[in-house]
Amino acid sequence: MTDFLMKPKIDFAFKEIMMNEQARIGFLAAMLGLDPAEIRETKILNTNLRKEHEDDKQGILDVRVLLNDDTEIDIEIQLSPLSVWADRSLFYMSKMFTEQIHAGRRLFGPEKMR
To answer: Against a cut of 0.85, is the pTM above it?
Structure first.
């Protein structure tokens, strides 16, 4: 590992590696216990979580990926212990979830509300 220009555990290097779709698919397959063939494609999404009001908390994800079945995944790299990780994770997940809710749609499933 001494030949690496930059170790992949460094935030910037990790994000750059995730820009490569083959690396992303391989990483996700390994982490999720899937056959890489099950992941047809992935798409990098905007990592800035939307602020609707000026005083809302800003959230910036490391890597946000859309899978072929419309599943969104947040990939974070954290090397040191972070006592607030549970809170941060819940915040990120909540923001990602609410960004996907659109007027007239059910919270779960593609059908329109009646």
So the answer is: no
